[in-house]
2,5-diamino-6-(ribosylamino)-4(3H)-pyrimidinone 5'-phosphate reductase
Amino acid sequence: MRPYVIVNVAVSADGKLSTRERRQVKISGSQDFERVDTLKAGCDAIMVGIGTVLADDPSLTIKSPDHIAERTRQGKPEHPVRIVVDSHARTPPDAKILHKGSGKRIVAVSEAAPTERMQNLKSLSDVIVAGKKQVDLTYFLHKLAEEGITRLMVEGGGTLIWGLISEGLVDELFMFVGNIIIGGYNAPTLAEGPGFIKESDFPTLKLIGTSIIEEGVLIHWKMGD
Ligand SMILES: NC(=O)C1=CN([C@@H]2O[C@H](COP(=O)(O)OP(=O)(O)OC[C@H]3O[C@@H](n4cnc5c(N)ncnc54)[C@H](O)[C@@H]3O)[C@@H](O)[C@H]2O)C=CC1
Ligand SMILES: Nc1nc(O)c(N)c(N[C@@H]2O[C@H](COP(=O)(O)O)[C@@H](O)[C@H]2O)n1
């Protein structure tokens, strides 16, 4: 058993998530950020990789007071559980994700995480050990289901998304394609990692819908069987 997993990313017109220096780029406009906020508000948890925490220092909080009020009316915490996949417990103790907004945080580490860093994190968030050298995503998602998380949104980055896709752990993908070109051989895309080689291994997607948002296009896919 695992949560239903929805990936949301914003890419440039040339398919990049950020610059080659992994510097955060504003790809979405205000309307797309509002859509993402609504998507977040409908989820039990939001997850990112440690690369995103180190690059962007996101808070992953819900921004709209209306969404927060609605969640409260439904008896849910103001913000979804915020999760970092962080094999070596590198999450900085002052990271916004650990401090901004109320509610639970979970850092997923591996058995290779240095004990002292893991102990420090334990005073700031829940820590779940999953996997030997890197986080075992299948096992970790099973643990999240045991914690009552049924709907999980993943905000990036490309390494974590690759890890999830390659293990068959993604159900839906929202991709906002913005009207900028970033370029760069080493600028990340939504699926980093070694990549597939055989065509028979390529996951296929089912197109659910497209819409124009400001100067960009939102593409909504479901992962095929
Ligand atoms: N445009 C967008 O929508 C978004 C862009 N970004 C960008 O993405 C970049 C960060 O992405 P990445 O460097 O790829 O880092 P990432 O955020 O994907 O984190 C990857 C890290 O997760 C950890 N990890 C542990 N177990 C893993 C597993 N089983 N599989 C995969 N990863 C595992 C590893 O330490 C790995 O280095 C930044 O430049 C950021 O600005 C991030 C989120 C959204
Ligand atoms: N949807 C979207 N559009 C963009 O243009 C982006 N740069 C991102 N990036 C990710 O959004 C998260 C920001 O979180 P907070 O506002 O701090 O809560 C973070 O994960 C960025 O990488 N997303």
